[in-house]
Amino acid sequence: MVTTKQRVQYALISLMDEHGTKGTELAEAIGVKKQSVSGWLRGKSSMDFDNMIAVCDYYGISLDEFVGRGDLVEVVDENERELIGLYREMTATQKDAMLAVARAMVG
């Protein structure tokens, strides 16, 4: 089972990757030390509520999305994370083909 701390870690990694944000850039934008962001990304420390809100404001998302209670995908493992990353890079035609293959494999 994925913990809330892990969901927040994966969400932060995904958001930073998606927006091309560096740790130092995020730290400066929300007023924390670079080491704090590094700890969150590595899962070594937990983000407090005020910092979660600051990250949400920075990226323009809701807290529910950030903690995996909204549209943000809950990533269970690194393979899933990689698949999501690859999917995001595909064209619309490639996405349709991939979905058809996945449905056939599961169906």
Describe the structure.
Helix 2 packs across helix 3 (34-42). It is built from 7 helices and no strands. By secondary structure, the protein is an all-alpha fold. The chain has 2 domains: 1-76, 434 Repressor (Amino-terminal Domain) (Orthogonal Bundle), CATH 1.10.260; 77-107.
Architecture (CATH level 2) name of the largest domain:
Orthogonal Bundle
Helix content: over 70%
What proportion strand? under 5%
Count the DSSP helices.
7
Largest sheet: none
Q: Which fold does the CATH topology of the largest domain refer to? A: 434 Repressor (Amino-terminal Domain)
> In sequence order, what are the helices and strands, one letter per element?
HHHHHHH
According to DSSP, the number of beta strands is 0
- CATH H-tier superfamily of the largest domain: lambda repressor-like DNA-binding domains
N-end to C-end Cα span: 25 Å
The figure for the number of domains is 2
Provide the gyration radius in Å: 15 Å
The first-level CATH class name of the largest domain = Mainly Alpha
**Strand-pairing-aware structural class:** mainly alpha
Average of per-residue pLDDT values: 87
Gross geometry: elongated
Low-confidence runs of at least 5 consecutive residues: none
